Amino acid sequence: MTTLQSQSHGIFVGTLFIFALLSPLAIGPSAAERVVRPTWDRTYLSVVPGTSSVEQTSDGGFIMSAMSRGLWVAKTNPAGLPEWLREYTPAGYSQSSGFVVRTSDSGYAIIGTALSNGYVTGFDGWLLKLGAIGNVQWSKTYGGLQDDFLSAGQQTSDGGYIVAGNTQSFGSPYDSSNGWVLRLDAQGSVLWQEVFPAQDIFSIDETSDGSFLVAGAVGVAGQADAWLLKLDSEGRVEWQRAYAVPAGNSIIRDHAFSIRQTPDGGYVVGGDVIAWGSSPYLPFEIPLRSYAWVLRLDSQGEIVWQRLFGGGGFTQHVYVSEMSDEGFIVSGRFEKANLGGPLVGLSGPFLLKMDAEGNLVWQKIYGGANDFLIQSQQTRDGGIIAVGSLVGGSPNCCDNLAWALKLDSEGNVRGCPVGVQSNATLADTSATVTNTTVASVNTNSTGTPTDVTVTAPPILLVQNQCPLRSQQVQEEDAISDSSPFYKAQVIRTSIQQSAG
Fold first, then answer.
1. CA-CA distance, 207 to 205, in Å (whole number)?
2. Cα separation of 255 and 431, whole Å?
3. Taking the CB of residue 264, how many other CB atoms lie within 10 A of it?
4. pTM across the whole model
């Protein structure tokens, strides 16, 4: 899938690097024993919107990433203040993007994509292994002579990796996108790989039985339907299904952007439903509105319940994760729609909390029309961490700044007026489920070791947004933060590190 195609339905291709994401929920003490630790609202350096990711670390801090001059990675303490930060770009490449996941050795892995210098091999998939303090352990790229993207993945239970995305180098030469799944060992060498011609893959999750659940979109009768398929440990298809919201006389395009196995062996899927129709100003059909789509499935992919969530215009960038109360937190973004008159609908990034049955608990909008919340998940203290980008004010006027919110379980930052109640609609829907028979094709991509250029911003201003939102903010953080700015350590050297 090309960047242009991604943007055509409101999803920047960098966003796919996050929909994949991808860590099991770390369950701490029981809800009755939890005391939510510091809540905060911070911005960091300038980044590309739609490229952020986060996971909580074992010490209660966070590991974050976003696309900046290179792939920016920051390890913070529980208050969101950096302990170390770096930017990574593989040698021979001019741009890099991806998302960060924790690994079992207390280190991290970056799964993403890099743009080759001079566009010699276009975009290539990229896997970077980091140590606990951000040191490069090894780096490999994957792909052929055309554009190849890795947008999803995680470390597997045996210490290897499962990664997925889309390729133009392998599969059908007549299609701009071919779904791509690679199983790698602990050093990034390819164990097996499969391509699903003419389909899109956005997310993958290892299941409790050692298999893999893949989410994406499949072509059915000339339209895109959400697509799930289960692969066994060797990449063979166990089952595959398409999910489609009834279209009537309209054109509906459905996508599944994130998938996670739930503790009961079922699955939760986050996606979208896009309605297309005629415009009075254009001689062809265009997207008119879209909805976030959450499906709760059993272990065989049968629908338990499903909901559409819409703000009257476009609802985009849907990511969903389970919480310890068996409910779900959904992150995304509203955008107004132009239907030929005044703009209609809500705007701004949102969080939606649902209970275990898919009922509304609360919904809130954070930030403005040009801001993003890409990923959210529960923290071990029962709160929520959410990351995205925020259009900055002085001294960062008009920049898109990396943005992180540490919220309590109700979506609040204590003493800070961030997050307002929204009135979007959460409704049942009745998607149809059909079996599909897409055949996979073996491919021969190999991992190519690369050197990595490691740099850091010459100066980083970490800005506490709360004093800017309210003059009466009351800090409750255990860690003192009396100034709204924290100057992170300056790293002035560029380090060339060889891949292992």
1. 6
2. 12
3. 11
4. 0.85
